[in-house]
Structure formats: C-alpha cells, structure tokens
Amino acid sequence: MKTRTVIYAVLFIFRHLSGASSSPSINDGSSGMAANGNASTVLEEATRNVKSSHRRFLLGKKKKIYKYFDWNDIHESMVELAETYPELVTLSSGQDEYDLASAGGIDDCPLDDDVTRRLTSLRRRQLSQQPGCKNYFFTILDSKAHYSRSPSLKTLPTLLFIGTMDGTNAVGPTAVLEFSALLLEATRCESLPHDDYPGTNAPAIVMREWLSQVEDAKYCRKVLKKRGVSDDERRMLARWGTTRRIIV
Fold it and tell me: For 35-66, how does the pLDDT look when each residue is reduced to its tens digit (9 = 90+)?
C-alpha cells in the first residue's frame, strides 16, 4: 500500500510538471450587490490586492526549470513551505523533537544555522543549538480543523512520505517536496473564499476582504489548471491536506 501511494504520488507529480490542460463557478456576490460605483471600486481594489500579495509566490515558480534538489534546495524548500503555510505546515527536526544526536561536527552543515534561525522565529521557541547536521521533517496538518485537543486529531490517518532511504537517491526528496508543495497550494486554493457572501449591508472592510478572497480563488484555480491540475485533482489534493496527518 505504501509503495502504491508513493508511485501514484510520483506519477502525479511528473504529470503535473509536464503540463496539461473548466473550473466550477465561484459566486462572487456580484448579482446580489447593489448596482452602484462603490461595489465596483471595492472589487477592483480587492483584485489589485490579490495581484500584489499571494500571486508573487505562485508566479515566482511559473518558469521554474525542473531539477533534482541538492542539500540546500531541500532545506530551503522545507523552510519556505513552513513560512508560506503556517496553519498547515509544522517544520521540526529529530534533534528538537526526539533529542537525537546530530551527524558530524561544528564544520558540517553550516547552513543549518540559517534554517535554525528562521525556524526559531517561526516556532517562537528556542531550538537545539548542537553542532552538526540535523534531521529535518515537516508535518502537514490542518491545525484549525484539528487543533491540539480536538477529538478528530486522535483519529486522523497518518501518511509517511520518505524521499530516500540512503544518501544516493536524488529523485525521492525532490518528488516528495514537489508533491507537498502542490498539495499545499491546492489545499489553500480550495479553502477560498473562507466565508459565504456577507450581504449587501456588510461593512466595506468585510466586503473588501471577502472579494479579495474570491479573486484569489479564481486566480489560483486558473493557475493550477494551467499547470495541469484538473478540478477533481485539486479537490482530491485538498482532501488529503485537510483529512490526513502527512509526515514528510
């Protein structure tokens, strides 16, 4: 079963990377909004806000050339995912969670210092400062739906994605990180907008935020489709992201 899951994940990733190519309609509330200039202004401003924020992250990868990740790429990707999706990703290490000894000495893995610094800021607690190379891993979990004392947390199925069993496998780490990034993008996209249409009498700030999320939802669905992810595949990935504990 584990082998079948990993094979499916790898096949899905390479289908996605090779590219392919209608999204369900999203009710933007325009039919229920008052026909006045204020509604139009709010929608235009919401669209501009989306373009200037979240889209930078997606567009930054649009022209990416596929290659195998080296040590630096792996760690940078892990930290980037944790920083980009703080409510879905928790990054840690075997040294911090299980008090494992680091590999090597003070002259090994010098870039771990930067990872530790960024991770300390993200986790807001002091992390292990022992020299040597740490064993990093991250957990994908919907922390809002499955908070620490929720009944659902104990019953969640757990998936373990292991990129490599030794140091000579270049495909595995790259594949599981690409898959994780795609799953997280789909999970976030599927969650938008977070609330129902607030109504024509909603305060301007509430309407502006809701319309921004609607525009973001339209855009990310469009981007994923251009990258070869169909509506059904996006929903499937989002279900994995919200109904599983995935350890990478």
Answer: 334 444 544 554 444 443 433 333 345 455 66
pLDDT in tens, 121-165: 776 666 667 788 888 999 999 998 898 888 998 899 999 998 887
What backbone phi and psi angles, to 5 degrees, belong to 75?
Answer: -70, -40
Residue with tokens 């907008």: 193
Radius of gyration of the chain (CA): 20
The two structure tokens encoding residue 227: 């990258």
Name the nearest CA neighbour of 237 among 196, 194, 193, 191.
191
Q: Return the closest-CA partner of residue 245 out of 151, 145, 174, 142.
A: 142
Token couple for 226: 């251009």
pTM for the model stands at: 0.74
Please state, in angstroms and rounded to a whole number, the distance separating the CA atoms of residues 178 and 87. Answer: 19
Tokens of 51: 């373009």
